[in-house]
Every structure is written in structure tokens, then in C-alpha cells.
């Protein structure tokens, strides 16, 4: 979207979505009235809920589905967009009905969430472990409480739903059987639903593992669309360092069948040694030899997450169990496997340790959720925490990993979805020893130095390190300013010059590891950023006596960052015979004296833009002449250096009344047309 339209809409030219409604400014403009559309407005966040073409699909959904918000049937198949799930599947030709999941033997799920759920939907959660060494497959996961309890749609989106959206799927509805449906969190509300079928009513249910189900008043196949919302704690619930297993309410604990036998299997894995030293110290100290098991919940969660999220994706099958190890121990010890192997190992280990854990799976992925209590008296579905251990998978067996894994990379790019709060992996220590100089101009550089070590204090060579900058008020996202790596002694020392996008003034510098599977960050170190400025001025070439002179433009720094709330000074002056700037003299008395006068000031807006108006006196100075100049001066401020721009100006004795018209008004390309008119008064 060009800056001219951003200016006319009065929106931010540095934002792709000025009103933060999920639809880019340019996309909304294309469907606005000025662009020949149906009324979208890039400055109005409420239009995300509008439905100008009345097809049952609101504007935000039309954008996400790449359909036309001004056309009620974007794929011209005879069905309104709101009844096509989804209206335009990739590769489908116009005129064909989109797949609803009823034609290919596979369940098709369509979801509208931001950020998208994709492979992290909850479909089937199991919370209990059964162990019987006499069986060929001694480990079984199951649902402890399968009783279904009906839940009513809330019908409201008022308050705590920081994460909500739609799920849409083709489903067989039954009056007798419970049909499972996916959910977004164990505590998610059903807000409302649409069966897309006349006379069909749907009832919703949950079991003891917070799996969701439906039943209906008819035996029928429907395209069910239902909206869910949650407060979001499930995705990033903190684990207090003071919580212990004694803080668990009794309702959260599911007994293990074969507890004593499976405990021995878990202890053998955790207490493995290489010679006389623990093979994995973070695991060993969860249940040391001749010691008692760890009860601190933060340590259990952190150490198990570190280990199982660092599994290697196998090139082939997970190794078959070999004596003395069983299938659980073989998976854990070899550290190879897809999402289901990681989640199974975590599930068994955590439950035996005493941490309530569920194994959660869907059609494409598996992960775990753990119970993080507030105290030992209160049990709530809102106390579960999702842990995604990475890995990929499409098979439900435990013997065939897939080839690709999910990385745990972090960088300071504000567009990076894998931000530091959601990383899994081993925590390492980053020490940012210093930043020099303490202040610098844009276009120069800062030097960052320090070291990286593990939790035992051992320096880590060959680790990538990134430098990030954040304005002191955290008004904008942090961004990367440079990268380096640790040397053979674990030290890093690199220069960072990529801070052109910084807000001038006080900023914070951080250092973080750029290493897959590891988490560590240090800072801030406070620095000051100074900058040269660029002043753009748009002024007319001429103006008549008694007319208004309008000068507009923008003030940016050399990184393109707006300079808001800065004062600009304006002068009009007449060149001397040497074209030099004369002394200030608003009313010269002699013919040889040149005109120079300060005509006012203005202040830039939040985007660095400005508009200044000055009415040329109808009589007196300045007199009509061809050799005037408009000067715009930014005198500088604390962190922005001074700059000045001058444009030429012709002052006319009187204005011209001009009338013009086109003949003809409509022509074909390459055909001529004429501009006719009259000048009623001569200048």
C-alpha cells in the first residue's frame, strides 16, 4: 500500500496492519469504497466482524481463506462462502464443491485460530498407565474416567478468552454414540455452534481426561462449525520454583497399575551410568541411586522437558528392545524417535515420578500436558500446561519415527513464532560481560563480548550467539543487531551494526544463544543511540499574494524511524545578488535590502509527518518576485542531529482563476484527448 493512501487513510505507514484487526492495510484498501470495493476500512478494527456480501463469512475469515469479501460465492460453485468449508482449497478449480471430509474416507478439519493450532489440537488425551510384565506389550495408556458430563455453550465472548476461534469438520452425528471432536485446551469453553443443517441440535460433553464429544437429536452427517475459547494459561502456564508434589490435589492423581514394577524400570533408566559417572546428570538427580525421588515440580518439568525434547529423529526404526531393556527403556536410552516416542517416554517417567501427565494425540502429532496446581485443595481443568516436545509423526505405532523434527531455534526477529518463552531445551548460562561504547550513532557499531557455559559452569565452544536491541520502554519488538559464536574457550566477541531500526535514545542490548535445543539470554546493558536525520519537504513552486502557502513533509532518522513530537522552524527569504541568505529583515526599507522572515513553527506527529500553513500578506512585504526560498529547519534534539531543507518559491502579484475541461471525457488507450480552458484573470 503506497504512502499516499496511508496518508489519506490516516494510518501508520510503518505498520502492515494499522488497526490490528488481523487484515493487512493493503488488503482492506483493495476492498474499500475508494478502491471500488464494499466498504472495508484499514483504520477501523471493528470491520473484521463485518460481512458486506452477506455470505455467512465475516471479513477476517474471508482474508484468512483468501476469498473475496465483496463476493458471496468466491469460487462460483453455487454455495455461499459461509457454507463452503473452506471455499477455495488449494488446487481446486472453480465450480467444484470443496471436500467436507465425507468423500475420501479421511476426516477434514478446518480451523480459524490466530496463531493457528495446526498440529497442536487436543483430540485424544489419555491420563492413566497400566503395566503388566506378562504381556507382549506391557505398557498401556488409557482414560481413567470415561464418564461423559454434558457442557453447555456459554454464548459469550466477553472477557477472558484471549485465544478463541472456530473449528469446522465433517462429522457423523449420532443419537446414541458419543463422537469425539478436537479441542484447544482442557478448560476450553464451547461458545456457540452451527450444525449447518436444518432441525439438527448438538449436545457437547467432556470425560475425565477433558476429551470433548458430541451427540445429536438425529443420526446424520453434518458440517459442524463450533467456536471455542480459553484464557490461554494452558499454553504458557508458569511453574513456581516452590511447588512440590505435596501441593497436588488428590483429584489430579491417577493411580498406576503395576506401580512397583514400572518404578524399577524408570529408576534403571534415570540412574544409568557411563562407568562410574551418571549418563545424564539432570535425570540422575531426579532419583539418585540410594536416594529419594525429587519432589520439586519445576525441576521435574524442566529436566524431563530438556531430555525428551532433544531426541534425535531417526533415519529408520527405533531400535528394537534388547535385554535387559524393555520398550520404554529402549526408547528413552537411545534418544531416537518422533513425537509419539518422546511423549510416551515423558508420560511414563513423569507419572512414575508423581507428576500427573497426559499423553495427547491427534491425526498428525503427539505431545503431553502436565498438571501444575495452585494448592493441594483446588482442582481445575485450567491448571494443565501443554508441553510440545517436538518431533513429527503420522503413525500411531511406537516403532516408526518420521524423518523431520521441529527445531528449538531462537532469534531476536520479531516475526519469529518460536519466541524465547515457548522454547524447550536445556538452559545454559549466557554472560554478557560488556558492551562498548555506551553510546553510538546509527551507522557505527557496538561491540558485545562475554561467554556461554552450561549449568555445571563448563564453557561451551562453537555456540551461536545473537545480539538483540530493545527500546527502554519496550514500545516496539526487540530485533537482532548482530551475531557471533563462541570460540574454543567458550568466549564470544563480535561487532553489531544492525541497529538502524532502533528508536533514538536509551536502548537495551541483550545476548542470547542461537543454538537449537538450548535456551539462554542475558542483559540488558543500557546504551544510547544517536542519529542523523532526513527531512523531506513538499512545497508549491509558486503562491499568490493573499493566498495560503502549505508546506508538508516528514522527518525521519537515517534508519527510516519516524521522529515524532519534534519542532520544525520555517523561514521565507529572498536571495541576494550572490544568492546568499540575507540577515533577518521582515520589512526591508531600501530597494537593495532583501526580505527574510521567520514565518512560524510546527510539530511532527507520531509518524514524523508535518503540515504547515502560512498566509502570504496581501499587501506589503514580501513583494511579488521570482527569487524566494522556503527554508525548513530541524534544529536538532537530544538524540537527533540537526538538518535543513530549502525549496525555491515564486510569489505572484495575484492569483489566476483557471477553468479547464477534458474533451472527450472517455477515451480508449492510445486515442488522443484535449485539455481546454480559459484564464479569466491574468497574473
From TrEMBL:
InterPro entries according to UniProt: Papain-like_cys_pep_sf
Composition-biased stretches (Acidic residues): 7-22, 68-84, 404-419
Region (Disordered): 1-104, 390-423
Biased composition (Basic and acidic residues): 58-67
Protein name: Transglutaminase-like domain-containing protein
Amino acid at each position: 500500500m503506497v504512502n499516499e493512501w496511508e496518508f489519506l487513510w490516516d494510518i501508520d505507514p510503518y505498520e502492515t496492519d494499522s488497526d490490528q484487526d488481523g487484515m493487512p492495510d493493503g488488503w482492506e484498501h483493495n476492498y474499500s469504497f475508494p478502491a471500488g470495493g464494499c466498504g472495508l476500512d484499514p483504520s477501523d478494527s471493528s470491520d473484521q466482524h463485518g460481512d458486506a456480501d452477506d455470505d455467512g463469512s465475516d471479513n477476517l475469515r474471508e482474508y484468512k481463506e483468501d476469498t473475496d469479501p465483496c463476493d458471496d460465492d468466491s469460487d462460483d460453485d453455487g454455495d455461499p462462502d459461509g457454507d463452503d468449508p473452506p471455499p477455495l482449497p488449494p488446487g481446486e478449480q472453480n465450480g467444484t464443491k470443496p471436500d467436507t471430509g465425507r468423500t475420501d474416507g479421511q476426516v477434514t478439519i478446518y480451523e480459524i485460530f490466530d496463531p493457528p493450532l495446526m498440529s497442536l489440537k487436543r483430540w485424544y488425551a489419555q491420563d492413566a498407565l497400566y503395566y503388566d510384565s506378562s504381556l507382549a506389550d506391557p505398557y498401556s495408556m488409557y482414560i481413567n474416567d470415561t464418564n461423559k458430563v454434558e457442557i453447555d455453550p456459554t454464548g459469550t465472548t466477553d472477557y477472558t478468552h484471549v485465544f478463541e476461534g472456530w473449528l469446522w469438520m465433517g462429522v457423523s452425528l449420532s443419537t446414541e454414540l458419543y463422537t469425539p471432536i478436537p479441542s484447544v485446551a482442557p478448560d476450553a469453553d464451547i461458545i456457540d455452534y452451527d450444525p449447518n443443517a436444518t432441525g439438527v441440535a448438538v449436545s457437547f460433553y467432556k470425560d475425565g481426561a477433558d476429551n470433548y464429544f458430541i451427540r445429536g437429536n438425529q443420526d446424520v452427517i453434518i458440517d459442524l462449525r463450533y467456536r471455542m475459547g480459553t484464557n490461554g494459561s494452558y499454553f504458557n502456564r508458569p511453574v513456581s520454583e516452590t511447588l512440590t508434589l505435596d501441593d497436588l490435589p488428590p483429584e489430579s492423581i491417577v493411580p498406576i497399575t503395576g506401580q512397583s514394577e514400572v518404578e524399577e524400570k524408570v529408576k534403571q533408566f534415570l540412574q544409568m551410568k557411563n562407568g562410574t559417572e551418571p549418563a545424564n546428570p539432570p535425570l540422575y538427580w531426579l532419583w539418585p541411586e540410594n536416594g529419594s525421588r525429587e519432589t520439586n515440580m519445576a525441576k521435574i518439568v524442566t529436566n524431563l522437558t530438556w531430555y525428551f525434547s532433544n531426541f534425535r529423529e531417526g533415519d529408520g526404526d527405533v531400535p528394537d528392545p534388547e535385554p535387559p531393556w524393555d520398550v520404554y527403556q529402549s526408547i528413552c536410552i537411545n534418544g531416537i524417535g518422533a513425537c509419539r516416542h518422546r511423549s510416551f517416554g515423558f508420560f511414563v517417567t513423569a507419572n512414575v515420578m508423581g507428576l500427573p501427565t497426559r499423553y495427547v494425540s491427534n491425526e498428525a502429532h503427539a505431545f503431553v500436558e502436565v498438571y501444575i496446581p495452585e494448592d493441594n485443595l483446588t482442582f481445575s481443568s485450567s491448571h494443565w500446561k501443554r508441553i510440545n516436545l517436538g518431533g513429527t509423526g503420522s503413525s500411531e505405532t511406537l516403532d516408526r519415527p518420521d524423518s523431520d523434527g521441529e527445531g528449538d531455534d531462537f532469534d531476536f526477529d520479531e516475526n519469529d513464532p518460536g519466541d524465547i518463552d515457548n522454547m524447550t531445551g536445556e538452559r545454559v548460562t549466557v554472560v554478557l560481560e560488556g558492551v562498548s561504547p555506551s553510546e553510538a550513532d546509527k551507522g557505527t557499531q557496538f561491540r558485545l563480548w562475554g561467554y556461554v557455559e552450561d549449568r555445571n559452569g563448563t564453557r561451551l565452544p562453537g555456540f551461536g550467539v545473537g545480539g538483540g536491541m530493545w527500546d527502554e520502554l519496550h514500545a516496539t519488538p526487540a530485533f537482532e543487531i548482530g551475531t557471533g559464536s563462541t570460540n574454543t574457550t567458550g568466549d564470544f566477541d563480535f561487532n553489531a551494526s544492525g541497529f538502524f531500526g532502533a528508536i533514538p535514545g536509551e536502548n537495551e542490548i541483550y545476548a542470547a544463544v542461537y543454538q537449537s535445543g538450548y535456551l539462554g539470554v542475558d542483559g540488558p546493558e543500557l546504551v544510547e543511540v544517536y542519529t542523523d536525520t532526513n527531512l523531506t519537504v513538499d512545497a508549491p513552486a509558486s503562491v499568490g499574494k493573499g493566498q495560503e502557502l502549505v508546506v508538508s513533509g516528514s522527518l525521519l532518522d537515517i534508519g527510516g524511524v519516524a521522529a515524532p513530537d519534534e519542532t520544525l522552524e520555517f523561514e521565507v527569504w529572498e536571495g541576494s545578488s550572490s544568492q546568499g541568505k540575507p540577515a533577518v529583515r521582515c520589512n526591508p526599507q531600501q530597494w537593495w535590502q532583501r526580505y527574510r522572515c521567520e514565518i512560524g513553527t510546527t510539530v511532527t506527529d507520531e509518524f514524523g509527518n508535518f503540515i504547515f500553513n502560512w498566509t502570504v500578506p496581501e499587501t506589503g512585504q514580501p513583494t511579488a518576485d521570482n527569487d524566494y526560498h522556503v527554508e525548513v529547519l530541524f534544529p536538532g534534539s537530544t538524540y537527533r542531529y540537526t538538518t535543513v531543507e530549502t525549496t525555491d518559491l515564486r510569489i505572484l502579484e495575484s492569483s489566476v482563476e483557471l477553468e479547464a475541461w477534458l474533451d472527450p471525457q472517455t477515451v480508449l488507450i492510445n486515442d488522443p484527448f484535449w485539455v481546454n480552458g480559459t484564464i479569466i484573470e491574468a497574473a
